[in-house]
Structures are given as structure tokens and as C-alpha cells.
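Reply to dn_fold:

You asked what the input looked like. This is it:
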Amino acid sequence: MDRRFVSCYDGWIHFQKSDLRELLDASASPGTTDAELRAIISRSMQHYEEYCEQRRVLAQEDGPTFFSPPWCASFENSVLWIGGCRASLAIRLLYSVIGSEMDDHLEEFLRGQQGRLASMGMMGLTACQLQMVNDLHQRTLCAEDRLSSRLATIQEDVADKPLLPLIRRQQEDGTINSFASTSSSTVHVNDGDHIDGEVEMAMKTYAEGLGRLVAEADRLRVSTVRSLLTEILSPRQAVELLVTGKQLHLSLHELALKRDRQLGRG
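and this is what came back:
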């Protein structure tokens, strides 16, 4: 594994932790102005965009690696969508935060104290904001479906031209031997032989297609988060969502690594 891939992710984890500390400090201080909060949000978004740009460059070299990255634990990889989280996850997280705050203050809400609750984070979301969130959610889901459909096409093409005819030709020529009569059906490449150049080119085409999908999915992830943080939510609401998202990511990462160690994988 090229060290640049691992370093890219390690750097992102570092910024997640440092940004989280800054966000928590800012949210804990009632004297922090909206302008100061916007500056912190902007820095956090800049780190995210820089990370995705590094991923774009690396995905051009090896797109398939991002679909099951060795720097992530197995549980993390099980919930990946085109090399990362679903773009709509940010919106689902927002809905979860709203629901949690509603549960925490249900009695006050039922007593008709909405006026006081309106100043309390996500409970202060207006009808206009909620409509904008819903519209963004629908657009994001449609964009995810389009990318998922393209991924399915790439995956299904493995069983079609040009790869399958080339592999069958290699088998007929004796380049590749298949052992199906034993306990394994693994395809072996004869010692000293190299995969045919045409097969390599076909696999390279698939890998490049996957790399482009990762870059497009990253753009969707970034644009969705940016819309939430800078166009829909107030600065304090945006900080609350960022804190929750980073805490979820970092905690899940640590718990997944711990699980792998318990299973003897790390």
C-alpha cells in the first residue's frame, strides 16, 4: 500500500480531532459571535475540501482501493458508499439531532413554550429552514441514485466485454488454469507469466471508472454539507451539526478498530 493513501486518511483524522476541539470551545462560549462561528465553520469546510482534493488525485491512480480501504476497520468498510459515507447521511444526522432535542424537551414543547425553545439549537429551525432541508434531501437522494446506478453498471460490466472474452481467450490459450475439482475454485496465473496486456488495460479502464465515481461522490458529499452549513442552518446550528458529525465519525472509527482487535484483525 502506497503510504500516501494512508497519510491522506491519517491527516484527515488529525483535522477531525483538532476541528472538533475548536468547535467545542466555540460552542461552549456564549460570547462567541456569529462571525467567529462562521470563520470556524469555514476552516472546517476548507479542511474537508482539501481532503477530498487529495482523495481525487489518489483515486485517479487507484480507485478500487477506496471501496475497501485498508486504513479503515472492517465495520467502517461495511457501511461505505462509493468510498465514503452517503451524502444524505449529513441530512439524516440533522433529523436525528432534531429528534433527540425534541425528546429532551418534550414536556416544555407540550406546555407551549416553543418561544424559549426556539433559541435552543436545532429546536429553533424555522418552517422555511425545514423545507430547504427537505428539498436538499430529495435532490441528494436523486444524485445518490444516479451514482449508484453508474456503479452498478461498472460492476456488472465485469461479466461482459471486454474483460470476459479476454479471460476466456487466455484460458483457451493455456495462460490461465482453473482448478474447479478441488476444494478451491481459485483462478491461478502460471508462474512466470504476466496478465495479458489487454486484460490489464480492461482492468485499468474499470479502475479509472471507479476513481471518477469516488471523485463525483466526494463532490456530492461536500456540496451537501456546504449547503447545510452555509445556506440553511444558522452559525450555531451549523456548529452543533459539525460537532455531532465529527464525534460520530471519530467514535465509530475507534470502536470499529477496537472490534477488529478483539477479533484478532489488528
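The first helix runs from residue 3 to 28.
Hope that clears it up.
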